[in-house]
Amino acid sequence: MSTAAESVPPKGGFSFDLCRRNEMLVQKGLKQPSFLKTGTTIVGLIFQDGVILGADTRATEGPIVADKNCEKIHYMAPNIYCCGAGTAADTEAVTDMVSSQLKLHRYHTGRESRVVTALTLLKSHLFSYQGYVSAALVLGGVDVTGPHLHTIYPHGSTDTLPFATMGSGSLAAMAVFESKYREGLTRDEGVKLVAEAICSGIFNDLGSGSNVDICVITKGKKEYLRNYMLPNPRTYVSEKGYSFAKKTEVLLTKITPLRELVEVVEGGDAMEE
Amino acid sequence: MNLADSTPAMNSLLGSEADSQRTLYPYVTGTSVVGIKYKDGILLAADMGGSYGSTLRYKTVERLKPVGKHSIIGASGEISDFQEIMRYLDELILYDNMWDDGNSLGPKEVHNYLTRVMYNRRNKFNPLWNSLVLGGVKNGQKYLGTVNMIGVHYEDNHVATGFGNHLARPILRDEWHENLTFEEGVKLLEKCMRVLLYRDRSAVNKLQIAKITEAGVTISQPYSLKTFWDFSAFKNPTVGAEGSW
């Protein structure tokens, strides 16, 4: 070998190479770029037949609301969903990545995915990045072993709980859960409690707001209730509507599709085994 | 250069001898206080814990005290500063009694006095490290207000300090209404204190509830709340996820 210090190929995980340089730049007065944070309220609870996940829909960039109706409940598998708080890019990327890994695993094993599989994939990825992937997740699903609910913290630790909250509005939502949760809730009671907890986050935390999303997962069935509740409607809408500038000539109002839809033939070529 | 001129000036303003005379950080602290207005007056609740950093050092600290004939005060934060505030208030009430004019200081006046004291101390960079709740009834008028160490003060139908702001106020905003009876009020306060007990690390399960009405002040004996730990997920948390917790 020519050099004493061999360059080891990177095996993934956080690379600390630039840390010292970044620290030096901050000391010299560089303002680090701010990231899109989902200052958030996300909750999950286990009821009689499965798991209910809930989330608000506000994405903040510092003091500004960047997206007033974003989706924080991410698809992992047909029977597993994951709510994400923290940096929006991180939660999206990490849930997408693990969702693909789970799909490949399903093809490989021929079985339904288990919640602990998703849990282990997520926690090992987050741990290897030492907390720099700022994703705090509430993972819930129903598999052959029963309903499960887990929280995953950015550094990679996990908790298994009957009810859980994460995000900046977690204390407001937890106050509702701690005072009202009991075992053996029915579906309607569970959905009502989750909606109450998210509303508590929406109205008492500045980082959360807009609408309530709910996802109910039971054995063999899932219901994704997007915008289940809209407690912040726009109260004033101008009756005038949109008025074009006086000189515009409106020629034609017709909507033409840009591309023809592809025809799918049923029972087409089967894939090779 | 400006830099060279200002440094010795700044040093004398916040110099080393001056440091030993200012409150820099709290040592023995009390956690949240929660207060609500109800039909006949005001209810305050506080636990009896005095933490020394992360140790629960003192477990019989009375953080709710009567002030004069018409008010009660609850304090969170540095306990020694609370004791100092009580000395100021005792002096205030004494001087008021010495007038012997048939009038006595009401809760609004005491709240205003405390606000001035707290704000002036903060302006001298020597704060009293407390968040206070002041409630009372005078001539049928109920009053409930709060002041904290930087002088922020307001009055409302329900107030909380410290962790209570995050955990108790959402519950109070949802469930408080005018004309709560005494039992309903106590139940509501206990609900808040129970959540604080579960989720605030510096809370102790030994609390007092203080009631003030036109008739006078009553501070209850210390008692503890019932807690529930029997969720099945707590009994066997890692079924299905061996190796985690």
TrEMBL record, chain A:
Question: What Pfam family is a match for this entry?
Answer: Proteasome
Q: Which GO terms describe its cellular component?
A: cytoplasm; nucleus; proteasome core complex
Which of UniProt's keywords are assigned here?
Cytoplasm, Hydrolase, Nucleus, Protease, Proteasome, Threonine protease
The active site is formed by T40 (nucleophile)
GO MF annotation list:
threonine-type endopeptidase activity
* Reactions catalysed according to its record: Cleavage of peptide bonds with very broad specificity
Q: Where in the cell is it found?
A: Cytoplasm; Nucleus
Return the PROSITE patterns for the record: PROTEASOME_BETA_1 (PS00854), PROTEASOME_BETA_2 (PS51476)
Highest taxon in the source lineage: Eukaryota
The GO biological-process annotations, alphabetized, read as: proteolysis involved in protein catabolic process
Predominantly, its location class is cytoplasm
What job does the chain carry out? The proteasome is a multicatalytic proteinase complex which is characterized by its ability to cleave peptides with Arg, Phe, Tyr, Leu, and Glu adjacent to the leaving group at neutral or slightly basic pH. The proteasome has an ATP-dependent proteolytic activity.
- Tell me how this protein assembles: Component of the proteasome complex. Component of the 20S core complex of the 26S proteasome. The 26S proteasome is composed of a core protease (CP), known as the 20S proteasome, capped at one or both ends by the 19S regulatory particle (RP/PA700). The 20S proteasome core is composed of 28 subunits that are arranged in four stacked rings, resulting in a barrel-shaped structure. The two end rings are each formed by seven alpha subunits, and the two central rings are each formed by seven beta subunits. The catalytic chamber with the active sites is on the inside of the barrel.
Stated family? Belongs to the peptidase T1B family.
Tell me what this protein is called: Proteasome subunit beta
From TrEMBL, chain B:
Q: Which UniProt keywords apply?
A: Cytoplasm, Nucleus, Proteasome
**Coiled-coil region list:** none
Q: Does the keyword Membrane apply?
A: no
Fetch the CDD domains from UniProt.
Answer: proteasome_beta_type_4 (cd03760)
Taken from the record, one Pfam family name reads Proteasome
Cell inner membrane recorded as keyword: no
GO CC field = cytoplasm; nucleus; proteasome core complex, beta-subunit complex
This protein's major location comes to: cytoplasm
Q: Output one GO BP term.
A: proteolysis involved in protein catabolic process
Q: Which domain of life does the protein's organism represent? A: Eukaryota
What is the protein's known function? Non-catalytic component of the proteasome.
- Family membership: Belongs to the peptidase T1B family.
Name it.
Proteasome subunit beta
Question: What's the source species for this entry?
Answer: Sesamum indicum
Taxonomic placement: Eukaryota, Viridiplantae, Streptophyta, Embryophyta, Tracheophyta
